Every structure is written in C-alpha cells, then in structure tokens.
C-alpha cells in the first residue's frame, strides 16, 4: 500500500516574476513595502512593463510549502488551479519535477494562469502585486475526499479567502478533513490579509485549526493587541499548536502546555520571498515525522534561512542534505 502523503497543500498556483528595484520605483508605483495586493490584469501589465530584467519562477505560498516538504524528502501533494496555457504548463512541470503530486485539472477557458510581480528592494523586503487569474476558477469540485483522507495534514494559505469560490473550496476541504481525521493547518498569509478577514480568521483559528502559522505582525493584527506577548496569551487557549515567526528573533512554538523559543538560523538575506512558506514546510515535515516541537522549529528555521539566501521562493539546495549536516535528521 502506498504511504499516506504527509501534507496536502492547498493554495493559489502562481508564477512569480521577480525583480530587484529601488525605493524610487516603489514610490512611482505607489507600492506599500512588504505588502501583497491583488491587482487586475491591466495593473499587472503596467508594473511588468516598467520592471527591470526579471526572473520567472513557479511560486504561490502553499506551492512553495509543498516544494519545501519534498526537498526534505517528505511526501506532499498540492491542490491549485492553473490555466492550460504556457505559464500553467510551466507551473505543472516545476512542482511535479521537485516531487510533489499535482493532479488538479487545468482550466480550459477563462482567465490565464496567475502571476505575481514581486519587487525586491535593497533591504531584502518583498512586495507582491498578484493577479489571481485562473486561481479564481478553483471550485469545490477540485477537492476530493480521497485526497484529503490520504494526507496526515491539510495545509491551506489564508490568501484563498480572497474570492467566494476559493473560500468555498477551503471550507469543503476543512469539512472533509474533520470527517476523515486529517489535521487542519492554516497560514494567516500576511497582515493585510488578516485585516480583510479578521473575524472569520479568528473563528477559524479558535474552532477549526490544529496547527496555525503566522508571523509577528499577523498574530498581533489577528487579536488587535499592542504586543506579540499579548497576542500569544489571547491565542494560547484556542489552538493545539501555533508556530509563530519573528524574523531575526527566530520563532516561538505555542501550545496550551508550553511556549518554546528557537533562535533564527544564520542567513545572508537576499530576498525574503517564501520565508514563511518554507518555515511551514520545515515545521510540517518535522511534525509529520514525529519530531519534537523544538526540532520542528529548527527544521523550519533551516528551510527559511535557505530560501532567503537567494532570489526565488523555492529551495536551491536540498533541504534534507542541510538538515542532515545540522544533525536534525
């Protein structure tokens, strides 16, 4: 019998178009540094036409997480919608080539495959302008009970809350997970996303989620507190496990019984795109491999440190090799 997938990742299937820009470019295009904003096709094309030479790579938050799990040697599958166009074919090839199972049927009409114009400033901050395109064609029909039941953990990115069709797909997946005994994991995605859906996210976190991922800004936004510590105390009674990242301060794993702080792995920061996605990959790989909470956080930090050391949101060095070198596997 084939082993269960460790994690089924569900998210927006996006091709990233990444370029280094200066602060003047950001001001010219009215960009809020560090944010992710949804744009229409015309705005996306306008930014693209002004961008300096760029690198095109398959991305999408949960897709990056799936790729990271596979890089550790884990078993990951993915649900996300692309169009049957050139970029859609690129996305399918890239995610399958790294060892992730991806069987979602491409759209044959409607919007093209999604893109995200990622602007990387000299301080290594990344600002995303995302045209969702075919992602919005994801429907409940793309989520099967067999796929959910065949995973130990269902991991969903908060960005899927941005359209009713995608949201309905997530709610179906959560319902199936609870029915089949699959754990539910959610990433809050970014603080602007939390601002848009705060009440719904609080309800999800407190009533449906087993493993929560958030950074410091996101968890503070969720509970509208003035400090990280206050947010942790509000969160703690409501979630089985929360893995909270704090950039150079490392991360904190919160359970009802303990709070574990783990320092950040040293890294030469080039581009923070994908840091949270790869943190989730390392943590979920460790969790589904039976590792301690501290080791899960160390694997997560290792993966995040690798991805921020270069342009692009997927690992360039095998994470299983790095983990073995650090004595974590």
UniProtKB/TrEMBL annotation:
Belongs to the carbohydrate kinase PfkB family. The keyword Phosphoprotein does not apply. Residues 55-315 form the Carbohydrate kinase PfkB domain. Transmembrane segments: none annotated. One of its GO terms (molecular function) is kinase activity. Pfam families: PfkB. PROSITE patterns: PFKB_KINASES_2. The lineage of its organism: Bacteria, Pseudomonadati, Pseudomonadota, Alphaproteobacteria, Kordiimonadales. It comes from Kordiimonas pumila. This is Adenosine kinase. Keywords: Kinase, Transferase. Signal peptide: none annotated. InterPro entries: Carb_kinase_PfkB-like, Carboh/pur_kinase_PfkB_CS, PfkB_dom, Ribokinase-like.
């Amino acid at each position: 019998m084939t082993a269960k997938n460790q994690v089924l990742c569900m998210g927006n299937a996006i091709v990233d178009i990444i370029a280094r820009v200066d602060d003047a470019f950001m001001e010219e295009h009215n960009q809020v540094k560090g944010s992710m904003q949804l744009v229409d096709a015309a705005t996306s094309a306008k930014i693209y036409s002004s961008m300096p030479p760029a690198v095109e790579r398959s991305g999408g938050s949960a897709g990056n997480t799936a790729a990271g799990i596979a890089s550790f040697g884990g078993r990951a599958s993915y649900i996300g919608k692309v169009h049957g166009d050139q970029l859609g074919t690129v996305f399918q090839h890239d995610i399958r080539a790294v060892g992730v199972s991806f069987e979602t049927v491409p759209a044959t009409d409607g919007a093209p495959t999604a893109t995200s114009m990622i602007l990387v400033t000299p301080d290594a901050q990344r600002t995303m302008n995302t045209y969702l395109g075919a992602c919005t064609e994801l429907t409940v029909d793309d989520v099967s009970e067999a796929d959910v039941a065949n995973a130990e953990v269902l991991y969903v990115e908060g960005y899927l809350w941005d359209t009713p069709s995608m949201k309905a797909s997530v709610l179906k997946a959560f319902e199936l997970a609870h029915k089949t005994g699959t754990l539910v994991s959610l990433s809050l995605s970014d603080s602007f996303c939390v601002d848009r859906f705060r009440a719904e996210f609080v309800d999800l976190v407190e009533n449906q989620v087993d493993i929560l991922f958030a950074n410091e800004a996101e968890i503070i936004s969720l509970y509208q507190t003035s400090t990280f510590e206050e947010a942790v105390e509000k969160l703690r009674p409501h979630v089985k496990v929360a893995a909270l990242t704090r950039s150079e301060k490392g991360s904190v794993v919160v359970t009802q019984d303990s709070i574990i702080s783990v320092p950040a792995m040293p890294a030469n920061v080039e581009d923070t795109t994908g840091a949270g996605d790869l943190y989730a990959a390392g943590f979920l790989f460790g969790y589904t491999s039976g590792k301690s909470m501290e080791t899960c956080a160390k694997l997560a930090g290792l993966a995040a440190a690798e991805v921020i050391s270069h342009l692009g949101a997927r690992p360039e060095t095998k994470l299983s090799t790095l983990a073995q070198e650090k004595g974590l596997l």
